[in-house]
Amino acid sequence: MSDQIAMTLAEARDAIRAKKISSKELTGAFVAAIEKARPLNAFITEAGEQAMLMADAADRRIAKGEVGALEGLPLAIKDLFCTKGVRTTAASKILGNFVPPYESTVTQNLWDAGAVMLGKTNLDEFAMGSSNETSAFGPVFNPWRANNSNANLVPGGSSGGSSAAVAADLCLAATGTDTGGSIRQPAAVTGRVGLKPTYGRCSRFGIVAFASSLDQAGPMTKTVRDAAIMLGTMASVDAKDSTSMDVPVPDYEKLLEGGIKGLKVGIPKEYRIDGVSAEINALWSKGAEWMKAQGAEIVEVSLPHTKYALPTYYIVAPAECSSNLARYDGVRFGHRASGARDITDLYEKSRGEGFGAEVQRRILIGTYVLSAGYYDAYYSRAQKLRTLIKRDFDQAFEKCDVLLTPTTPGPAFAVGAKTTDPLEMYLQDVFTVTVNLAGLPGISVPAGLTESCLPLGLQLIGKAFDEATLLRAAYAIETAADFKHSPAKWWNV
Amino acid sequence: MSVDKDTVRRIAKLARLAVPENRLEPMAGELNGIFQWVEMLGEVNVEGVPAMTSVVAQKLKWREDNVTDGGRADDLMINAPDGTDHFFVVPKVIE
C-alpha cells in the first residue's frame, strides 16, 4: 500500500491506464493514509466517502474506455476553492459552516478530467500567512523534522495543508493558490514542486478572494512532470472570470524534455540579501552550475526595485483584502453574532468574532491606506511602484528567458517561532512576492537539504504565459538535483 | 505619520470591525511598525510613472448584455444564518 501512495501522478496515471490498479484501490489507500495522518492536521474536511464514489464512477468510465487526462487520480483541494455541496471554510470561523451551491472553475476542470477529490486542505485564514498558523482550524505540522529532533515545524503557507499532504503522500497532487508566495514557499519547505502560473492562466471563479489582482491558482506536486500535467487541466479561459486569458494551453508534458541548451538564465543580483542562510546561497550557485552544465547560458541581470516589492505588496494586498472581505457581514452567509442591538452592531460584532487576528490586521491596514487623505500617499504610490517592479522584469527578460533565485530565505521553522512579529513572518515572501506583483509565472523545485536534513527549494521565474519554458527549465534543475528524499512517517502510530 | 488609538478606532468603524477597547492600543503599535517599514517607498521618485491598472496586457472583455444566470433564490438561502422563505432576517433598520 505504501508503494501505491508514494507514486507520482504520472506513474499512477500510467498504472490506471494499464489497468494495473483501479481508482478505487488507489483512492482507498489514500483515504486510509489520510486517516492515519490526522496528527498533521493537513485536512479541514476529509471526503473519504465521496472520494470512493468518485473513484467508482472513474473505474466505470475506464471500463468503457472513457479515460480523461486525470481519470481516477485522487487529489487534495485547498479549502479556498468552492466545492459544490462540500463545506468550504477558507480556514476562517466566519465561513466555518459555508457549503457552496456552486463549483470553482479550476476544480470543475479537474473533475471533468476524471480526478477524484480526497478532501479539503488546511490553510492560513483567507490565505493570509506564511506558516499555516493563522488557520481557525489549528496549525498544520510539516511532515519533515530536523535530524534528531521531535520539534514540530511549519509546512509553509498559506497552502500549508496542501504542501503537507503532498509531502506526506496523502494525495497524488494538490491545488494551491498563490498571492505572494503561498504555493512556492510551502512547496519549498516541504521538498516538493509548486507552480504559480501567469496571472490570468487559471480562472479565479469560485476561489475565495483575497487580493484579486494577485491571486492565482496552481498545482503542488511531487515532480515537475506532475505540475505540467496538472496545469494542463487547471488552466482555461472562463466567461465567469473576465481576467482569465484566452491564450492557447500547450501540452506542457510533451514540451518538458526539450533540454535547456542555449537557454539564457538570468541571476538577479538584488536577490543577494542580508539574512539569507549561507546554505541557500550555496544552493543557488549550485543551481546555476547545474543549468550551465546542461548548456544554458548564465547572465547577471538587475531588478533594481526588488527591495520595494514587499512593502508595496503590504499596501496593495491589504487594500484589496479589505474590499473583498467587506462581503462577510453576517447577513447572507457565514458567522452571525448573537445579541446585536442594530444592523451596524450586527456587522461589527459578526466580523469581530468571525475574523482572526491576522485577517483583522490586514483589513485595518487596507482600510487605512484606502481612506480619504491617505490614498495618494499609500495606495496610489504602491500602484506606481508596481509598474516599476514589472518594468524591471520586462527589461531583465530582454536579456534572458528565465530567472533563477532562491524560493525562501531559509528552511521550515518551528511552530510559534515567528508569530509575535508580523514583519518577520512577512519576510518569508521576500523572493516570491515580486512575481505576483508582476503577474509572472514562478515555480519552486526541491534542490537540496540543509545540514539538519530539511528541504530547500530553488525558484525559476518565467515570462508571462511562457509556462512551457519555465517547466522545461524546472525539469532540468530537477534532473540535476535528483532530489529523492521523503520525510520519515513519524505520524503513523 | 503615526497611528494612534483614536485612529485605530476610526478605521475599525470604517471597516465595520468590532475591536475591543483593550486591543486598540496594541493594534496601533502593530500598525505603526508596518507603516514605518512601508515608509521606504517614499524614497522612490515616482513622478511620471503611471499607476498599474492591469498586470497583464489585456483589453477589458465585453459581452452581450444578456441575463446568464439567476432564479436561484433557494440556493442563495441555504447558507443564510437567519432567513425565512426567500428573505434574510436582520435587526430592525427603520425606527
Task: Please outline what is shown here.
The complex is a heterodimer of chains A (493) and B (95). Chain A has helices at 2-5, 9-17, 23-36, 48-63, 105-112, 160-167, 184-189, 224-234, 278-293, 309-324, 343-354, 357-370, 376-396, 422-426, 433-437, 467-481; strands at 43-46, 74-78, 116-121, 173-177, 193-196, 217-221, 264-268, 297-301, 402-406, 442-449, 455-462. Chain A is α/β, with parallel strands linked by helices.
- Major sheet size, sense and barrel closure of chain B: 2 strands, antiparallel
| Count of DSSP H/I helices of chain B | 3
Give the beta-strand count of chain A.
11
**The CATH homologous superfamily of one domain in chain A:** Amidase signature (AS) domain
- The quaternary structure here is heterodimer
Which consecutive residue ranges of chain A, at least 5 long each, have pLDDT under 50? none
How confident is the prediction overall: mean pLDDT of chain A?
A: 97
According to DSSP, the number of beta strands of chain B is 2
User: Which runs of chain B of at least 5 residues are low in confidence (pLDDT < 50)?
Assistant: none
